[in-house]
User: Which sequence fits this backbone?
């Protein structure tokens, strides 16, 4: 864990969408953060754009926790919605079956992506009573109304603060809005809070007749139930600013006389090869298909190399580059840990005659990287700047190791490695020694390679390293890491060098 404090005198500043400016972050309760991030509508596998948003807020949450905050992180699952119902009808099954399948799919991809589970993860279908309580309050206060058909609508004209989150004017919204066929609302800009039941759709009993909640009312009720309003931070993709988050805030203002959140955060959109991602263009990629081919740590690295508020241009060429960068960092950490091992020789007390002192003071470089990391992250979670500081440290570390050879100071090398592992880890990126177990299907192969009759451990290790190289070429990173561990179990060490990998006996 990082120390709770940032560099002396520094304050965490966060860009607030509503105010279009960075603000010093002051939570409603000292040392605690109440944070809500909109989760997915579970009707399909999530795409890499969704993945980018969830990774961004995971990194933000991790950093807040690393600074010492007690973060209560709530993220919902929208498991009742038009999209779910339409998918169920297309496939001839129930909406509940569709929602269950893709809820589990989402949770699995988040686990694979290294996203920490929420403190609380409510599902919309389990929070109907809280939503009905909110709607009852809005109706009683004249902020919402019930139609003859049993629908409930929010009256936008009754909310003087409407438009403050997105910066839009009601007059402009009214000019572009229209009443759909079958709707019975009083004004085109009014939005649905409760939808009367239709044949074949899931529904719940209510004071207004059977029906189901509207999308915009779910998070308001859940945020208030689990965190209490106003919450510290409400986040999501920039596509949610309007109408979703605007409509959420209007309900909180109308029901309780307070904003839903003190600070609104939104991540930028993801494009693929410079174009909007869409199935029609053939550039639509689910998170699952990308994780099936690439290591999650490298994908996280690619996502976080762009500031969370900026658009991200995704390409597989850039992802390949991120894989290479991630591997180079891991190799640097391995080299530093080897130089800093317990049985490493102590450097001579005096420089040999004719030798030159290293051009890099690695202890100073490590301290500078730590300070630069905090400084970047305290400036609206600038992960791009924070990662830049760590890459600079890795470059200096490689220069240092190349210059001193076997004369590295073990405590300094170890300190640099620990800093890289710690600070990359604060962003959810693992760069330390692998701890994966050998995949079951590779156990027989590894056993065969490691059990040559009469062969030396070095010969067995060389066979394993060839298997590791094959796994890396196939981008089976878990297998490659596990084979490396098997080599270590033979009393050998893998050294990744610019000219390739080699094995040496420990202590050699």
Assistant:
């Amino acid at each position: 864990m990082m120390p709770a404090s940032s560099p002396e005198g520094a304050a965490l500043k966060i860009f607030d969408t509503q105010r279009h400016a960075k603000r010093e972050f002051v939570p409603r309760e000292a040392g605690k953060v109440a944070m809500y991030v909109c989760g997915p509508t579970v009707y399909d596998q999530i795409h890499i754009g969704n993945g980018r948003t969830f990774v961004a807020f995971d990194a933000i949450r991790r950093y807040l926790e690393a600074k010492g905050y007690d973060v209560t992180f709530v993220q919902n699952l929208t498991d009742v919605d038009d999209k779910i119902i339409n998918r169920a009808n297309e496939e001839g099954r129930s909406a509940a079956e569709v929602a269950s399948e893709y809820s589990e799919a989402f949770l699995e991809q988040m686990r694979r992506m290294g996203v920490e589970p929420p403190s609380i993860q409510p599902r919309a279908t389990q929070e109907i009573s809280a939503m009905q309580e909110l709607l009852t309050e809005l109706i009683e206060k004249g902020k919402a109304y019930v139609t003859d058909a049993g629908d409930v609508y929010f009256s936008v004209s009754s909310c003087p603060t409407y438009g403050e989150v997105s910066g839009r004017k009601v007059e402009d919204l009214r000019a572009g809005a229209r009443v759909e066929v079958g709707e019975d609302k009083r004004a085109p800009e009014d939005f649905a809070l409760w939808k009367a039941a239709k044949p074949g759709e899931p529904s719940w009993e209510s004071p207004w007749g059977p029906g189901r909640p509207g999308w915009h009312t779910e998070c308001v009720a859940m945020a208030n139930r689990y965190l209490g309003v106003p919450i510290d931070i409400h986040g999501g993709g920039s596509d949610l600013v309007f109408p979703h988050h605007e409509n959420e805030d209007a309900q909180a203002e109308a029901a309780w006389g307070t904003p839903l959140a003190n600070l609104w955060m939104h991540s930028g959109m993801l494009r693929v090869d410079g174009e909007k991602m869409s199935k029609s263009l053939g550039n639509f990629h689910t998170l699952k298909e990308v994780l099936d081919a690439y290591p999650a740590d490298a994908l996280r690295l690619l996502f976080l190399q762009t500031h969370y508020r900026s658009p991200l241009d995704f390409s597989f060429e850039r992802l390949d580059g991120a894989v290479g960068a991630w591997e180079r960092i891991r190799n640097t950490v391995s080299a530093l840990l080897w130089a800093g091992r317990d049985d490493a020789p102590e450097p001579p007390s005096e420089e040999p005659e004719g030798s030159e002192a290293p051009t890099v003071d690695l202890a100073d470089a490590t301290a500078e990287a730590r300070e630069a990391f905090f400084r970047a992250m305290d400036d609206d979670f600038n992960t791009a700047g924070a990662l830049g500081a760590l890459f600079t440290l890795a470059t200096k570390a490689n220069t240092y190791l190349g210059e001193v050879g076997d004369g590295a100071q073990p405590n300094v090398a170890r300190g640099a490695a620990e800093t890289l592992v710690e600070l990359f880890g604060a962003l959810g990126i693992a760069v330390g020694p692998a701890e994966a177990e050998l995949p079951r299907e590779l156990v027989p192969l590894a056993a065969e390679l490691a059990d040559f009759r009469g062969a030396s451990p070095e010969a067995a290790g060389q066979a394993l390293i060839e298997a590791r190289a094959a796994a890396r070429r196939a981008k089976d990173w878990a297998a490659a890491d596990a084979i490396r561990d098997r080599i270590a179990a033979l009393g050998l060490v893998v050294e990744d060098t610019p000219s390739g990998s080699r094995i040496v006996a420990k202590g050699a």
Remarks:
- The longest helix spans residues 316-339.
- The chain has 16 helices and 15 strands.
- Confidence is low (pLDDT under 50) at residues 1-5, 435-455.
